User: Which sequence fits this backbone?
């Protein structure tokens, strides 16, 4: 997730910006840059890789006296992590930094290019500064030009812009992406995308609301609402604990990342949904020409996302789909045919076993696609095509939002392929897209739900194990729920297809066997319910997750009444994540750093 800093004042602007970016490193980035405007003169520096590279580039740059400055750490979405694609982006006399995604950037870029504007980068962000300067030429007032620009943008954004036309001012806008401004007794102004860069510099902060925009100078802080009404800032005291600030008040990064899922799904879908079709600008439709099978290959949580995708590819796209565990696939001398699209899935893009299977597929002449969260990773560089999940950095070892974004992206990809193959009617694709738009709301964690799971978790701290059970696409979700619990609680847990319980595992049923039953209303409810009743009759302790009341359950967690099983999938996903989290916390474990595990598995 990209990071933003900004400063208006007389101190060492360069160091303030670099220190602020360092405090945002925990969010993840692949390039960084700063721009400083002093005495109507710009100095700008960019570097790919770690912040130390930017520090080295700026070591001879000295800032003295009053200046305005902006800085940015970039997590690539549009375009590779290169210096040209790094922020800040330059117009003729202005610089901009931006978090989020501009959905209509292609339209704006085309219009600007037709009017003679030359673009240096592949990013969506660059259109902002050129659109601003286009408006400035006709309006001759920087703030009005900025206001007009913001009104022309569609999507999510947090923006800071500086221009020689008003060289003592930073213009800002916030829609969907976080941003705040801080002040101190010395009259300085600091911008950031989270609290941490401001700790030690500011005493009070104002958190911008969606639709807010305005400008800041040494003398003034002007905020306007989305309706254009001027509004007073609402300052609150700034925390002094940097680690807590990084966690945004959550107890663990994993907890924060569960809560973030609604926002990152918006980022995952941004610019990829139209009213009637799925848009993937990053892949060519010819990738699927002559393809009769899709083979998905992954490890761990990504393997569960792949299993989930296999149901959707065959159901919606009507294409044969198989799923492979990468560590097994490598050594079994598999038969690979060139009418197969080989798809690897990895949060980091560096998972050793999965990377080796990608090399095997390339050697066999198969077309390859990677679903990944990190641009410029080994898998992205090696594959024929890649689609980024845009989950941002995930600090908790037990994956949550990476899984959510992978499944969402696969759902979108199945509809994309379905349209190419004519496997779904136009009306059904439109219906599916409308369901996708509802996913972020399905992922919002309510206080009522979380409190219920906190109270319920104390019943599940002993016993001889857990079964997570589900049918169809809820079987991979059961596997993922069991994995989450194993990873952070160290309790034994298994995921099983509900219908398989009677084929052996039901022998374990007794009051000390805890069954987490996934019972979606819209997919095989009666059959799944019957399987759970078999376990209940044998005294297994049942925790049912469903929109429908289930009187055989010892514990019941009610989810919303949804109009489709995929929305139920995402609501249940949040529930099983929270169950694992709260059980682990009660057991006193380090949720973010569970024993024996690493975030990126780069060994066999």
Assistant:
């Amino acid at each position: 997730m990209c990071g933003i800093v900004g400063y208006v004042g007389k101190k060492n602007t360069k160091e303030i910006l670099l220190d602020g970016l360092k405090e945002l490193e925990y969010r993840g980035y692949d390039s960084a840059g700063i721009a400083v405007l002093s005495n109507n003169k710009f100095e700008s520096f960019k570097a790919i890789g770690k912040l130390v590279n930017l520090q080295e580039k700026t070591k001879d740059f000295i800032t003295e006296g009053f200046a305005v400055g902006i800085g940015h750490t970039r997590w690539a979405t549009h375009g590779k992590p290169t210096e040209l694609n790094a922020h800040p982006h330059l117009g003729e006399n202005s610089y901009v930094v931006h978090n989020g995604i501009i959905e209509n950037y292609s339209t704006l870029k085309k219009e600007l290019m037709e009017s003679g504007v030359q673009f240096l980068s592949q990013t969506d962000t660059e259109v902002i500064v050129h659109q601003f300067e286009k408006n400035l030429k006709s309006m001759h007032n920087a703030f009005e030009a900025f206001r007009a620009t913001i009104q022309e943008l569609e999507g999510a954004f947090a923006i800071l812009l500086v221009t020689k036309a008003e060289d003592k001012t930073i213009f800002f806008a916030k829609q969907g992406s976080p941003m705040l401004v801080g002040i101190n007794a010395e009259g300085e102004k600091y911008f950031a995308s989270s609290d941490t860069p401001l700790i030690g510099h500011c005493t009070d902060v104002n958190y911008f609301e969606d639709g807010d925009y305005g400008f800041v100078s040494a003398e003034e802080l002007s905020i306007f609402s989305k309706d254009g009404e001027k509004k007073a800032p609402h300052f609150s005291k700034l925390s002094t604990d940097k680690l807590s600030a990084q966690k945004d008040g959550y107890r663990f990064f994993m907890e924060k990342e569960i809560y973030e899922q609604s926002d990152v799904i918006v980022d995952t879908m941004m610019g990829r949904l139209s009213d009637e079709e799925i848009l993937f600008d990053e892949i060519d439709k010819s990738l699927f020409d002559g393809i009769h099978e899709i083979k998905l290959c992954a490890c761990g949580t990504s393997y569960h996302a792949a299993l989930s995708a296999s149901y959707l590819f065959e159901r919606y796209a009507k294409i044969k789909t198989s799923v492979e565990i990468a560590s097994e696939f490598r050594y079994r001398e598999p038969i690979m045919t060139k009418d197969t699209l080989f798809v690897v899935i990895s949060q980091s893009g560096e998972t050793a076993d999965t990377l080796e299977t990608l090399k095997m597929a390339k050697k066999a002449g198969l077309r390859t696609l990677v679903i990944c969260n990190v641009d410029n990773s080994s898998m992205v560089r090696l594959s024929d095509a890649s689609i980024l999940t845009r989950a941002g950095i995930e600090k908790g070892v037990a994956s949550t939002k990476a899984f959510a974004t992978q499944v969402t992206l696969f759902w979108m990809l199945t509809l994309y392929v379905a349209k190419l193959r004519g496997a779904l009617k136009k009306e059904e694709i439109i219906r599916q897209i409308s369901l996708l738009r509802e996913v972020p709301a399905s992922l919002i964690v309510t206080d009522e739900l979380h409190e219920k799971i906190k109270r319920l978790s104390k019943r599940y701290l002993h016993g001889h194990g857990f079964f997570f059970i589900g049918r169809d696409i809820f079987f991979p979700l059961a596997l993922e729920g069991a994995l989450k619990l194993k990873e952070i609680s160290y309790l034994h847990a298994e995921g099983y297809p509900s219908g398989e319980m009677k084929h052996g595992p039901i022998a374990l049923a007794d009051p000390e066997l805890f069954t987490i039953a996934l019972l979606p209303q819209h997919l095989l409810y009666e059959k799944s319910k019957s399987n759970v009743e078999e376990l209940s009759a044998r005294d297994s302790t049942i925790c049912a997750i469903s929109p429908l009341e289930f009187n055989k359950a010892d514990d019941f967690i009610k989810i919303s009444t949804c109009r489709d099983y995929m929305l139920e999938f995402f609501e249940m996903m949040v529930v099983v994540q929270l169950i694992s989290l709260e059980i682990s916390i009660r057991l006193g474990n380090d949720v973010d750093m569970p024993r024996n595990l690493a975030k990126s598995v780069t060994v066999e």
Remarks:
- The domain at 253-441 is CATH 3.40.50.10490 (Rossmann fold).
